[in-house]
Amino acid sequence: MADDPQLADYPVQSSDKIRFADTDRQGHVNNAVFATFLETGRVEILYDSRTPLSVEGGEFVIARLELDFRAELKWPGHVAIGTRIASIGRSSMKLSQVLFQEGRCAALAETVIVLIDRRSRRPRPLPPGEAARLRTLTGATVEP
Amino acid sequence: MADDPQLADYPVQSSDKIRFADTDRQGHVNNAVFATFLETGRVEILYDSRTPLSVEGGEFVIARLELDFRAELKWPGHVAIGTRIASIGRSSMKLSQVLFQEGRCAALAETVIVLIDRRSRRPRPLPPGEAARLRTLTGATVEP
Amino acid sequence: MADDPQLADYPVQSSDKIRFADTDRQGHVNNAVFATFLETGRVEILYDSRTPLSVEGGEFVIARLELDFRAELKWPGHVAIGTRIASIGRSSMKLSQVLFQEGRCAALAETVIVLIDRRSRRPRPLPPGEAARLRTLTGATVEP
Amino acid sequence: MADDPQLADYPVQSSDKIRFADTDRQGHVNNAVFATFLETGRVEILYDSRTPLSVEGGEFVIARLELDFRAELKWPGHVAIGTRIASIGRSSMKLSQVLFQEGRCAALAETVIVLIDRRSRRPRPLPPGEAARLRTLTGATVEP
Q: Predicted ipTM?
């Protein structure tokens, strides 16, 4: 993953407010909460209120998460979440994400999301229209 | 609520394992997690695998929670959860609960649960069979 | 508690962003997360960055929570949290709080917070300066 | 990661009880809770009550998480967590972990943990005694 990530390279920008309950006895935000912040970035693409990825009878599930912890997140404060689509497959996509607090990168992540059939729980192809919209979210850094 | 609560007075006994992530920066289990432990006791009555409270098209929701914190809960360890039905109304019931860790009472709680219609979200009467089963869970301390 | 609570009656206004992970299998925000939102309002008084309640060697802990659930909280969205000091005792205070989503009251709560000594874990008196600052947060509705 | 993982290949066995609040509106256990279950396995090595990894002034933090989701986790139930030390470096170690529910593998994970100095937050070497104890937890599958 990138050595010096910039939030501006991620076309979808979200944020979360860090909660007191996100901390653990080590005094910082618990590591599992990083995965929750990444989810915030993901779902704002998948369920975007203007143009949600709507696939009748389908559901997006996470298949793989790679998460590099670069710095601690501290309460109180906000976390800025940058997300871009890194690649799009037949029934899946890979997202690249970053977490920042006060201008400092706290984490980088890659996530694989798969579209499954709600009933059979098996992968199904991304509809062309949805794939096209996702391609608009790839961001500058992956373009030639 | 009782001054010297005994776990044995609560006919439904559950337990939860305290997780590292349940702690907060004060070093102890975060107060909101107490409500999660109480939920464990409640759902083991509502969704009991042998005799679940099954009400076609109905759903149980919490209407009120009163929670007295008596002691800190510490990680690592388990929490013992005692639950009894304190009273049964037309479409609701009141539960009395206690949380214990290593023989020490950490919390007492009273919860009001209401049966609502899944669609209208309005209260609906408890079926007689369900009310009868709930009456078996009132425990020794509330009997004359 | 008040029958028709108004957010404007609570002098300390906070907010939280509802997370996907706050929901449970009933589709709405899990009841324990309401307690987390209340904590957000509390800690913004206790740890206010401009004028934190700083009591050398002391710690604020929650002693009692009364929580009336009025409506479901739904993802996505924000929750507005109103907090006021309802009363101040020797080593404790009572907070009144409300949770709103899109102009609709979702919950009312009263919380008792106690100042304890960090080492002995026993209550200790609120310093006069801190008590005075808390009295400025009682809000219009409790004044004569 | 292994194609057909067996819980028995992981010398440190832990478990967690799945909570109602672990579920999300998709009906299954939320993905971030998988990271919490992995933490349970880790901390039972790091803070083992009989032989804790005690490093005066040091703290273990997570540097990297790779998590393959294989199946949904469902409430109610328990999750079995298998952990083994995959490799040991100068100031870090890699853990391999699996999550199982009712005999079915739900996830595989690799985690890198670093020992840091509590004050400087910089990596520091694992003491030889601690490294030696960790080597006893490598499990059958990584031995020649």
A: 0.92
